[in-house]
Amino acid sequence: MSFEPKILGFLCNWCSYAGADLAGVSRIQYPPNIRVIRVMCSGRVDPVFVLEGLLIGLDGVIVMGCHLGDCHYIDGNYEEKNKIDLLTIALEMIGLADRFRLEWVSASEGVRFGQVVTEFTEQIKKVGPSPLSGSNPDLKLRDDLEALKRTFDDIRLRALVGRQRTITEFGNVYDKLIETERYDSEIDEALKSEIMRNKILMKLEKDSLSVKELSKLLDIDSNVILKQIIALKAKNLIDFDRIDEITPYYHAI
Ligand code: FES
User: Mutate which of 10, 11, 12 to test ligand 1's pocket (most atoms within 8 Å of Cβ)?
Assistant: First the structure.
C-alpha cells in the first residue's frame, strides 16, 4: 500500500500563510498531505506543540515563518530559531529529527512554498510512517518523547532559551556578555540533564525503584542515575519508598 504521510504545518500569518495562499491562487501543484494551523508569528510556535504533534502519531511537522529580518514582530523568528535549534538537538537524540523542519517562506514565494512542501513530503515518505502511529506504537519512543515534552515545558529551560539573545548579544544583569559557544554548551548540558531527570521521574511515577533498576531500565550508568536521584531528592520531587536490605527504593512525590 502506498504511504500518504500526515503532515502538520504551522504557518505565520504575514509571510508563509500568504505564500501558501499565493501558491493556491497561482495553481501551483504540491502534495495534499499538509494540514495547516495559522499562527500570527512563527515565534508563537512552542516546541511543545511540535512534540505533541509527534506524540499523537503525525508523520511530520513543519514550521514556516518570515525570512530572518522580515518578522512583523521584529525578532519573533529569531526567537523561534533559538527554540527550534534546541528542539532539533533533542529530536536528534531520539532519532526523530528527520520528521521536523523549520523553513522561511515569504508572502511572494508561492513557488517556494510548493517546493518546500513537496520536498518535506518526499522526505517523510522516505523515512516512513511514524513509529507512534498504528496499532503497535513504539512505547519506548513514546516515553522518550513525553520526557522531551516535559523538558520543554519546564520553566527553567524556557527561561534560559528566552534569554539567549539578551545574554549572548546584550549582556546579563551585570552587563557581562556570555560567548555563544559557552552558552550553547551550557544549554546543551542543561537539556540533556533535564531530559534524563524527566525520564527518571516518569519511571518513579509508575513504580518504586532502586538506582540499579533505573540504570537497567533506562540504560544509563548507575553513577549518573545516582547523581540525578540526589538532585531530584533535593528538589523534593522524589522520596524514599523503603529500604530492602541495604538497597533504597525511591518513588515520585
Ligand atoms: Fe512571520 Fe514573525 S510574523 S515570523
Answer: 12
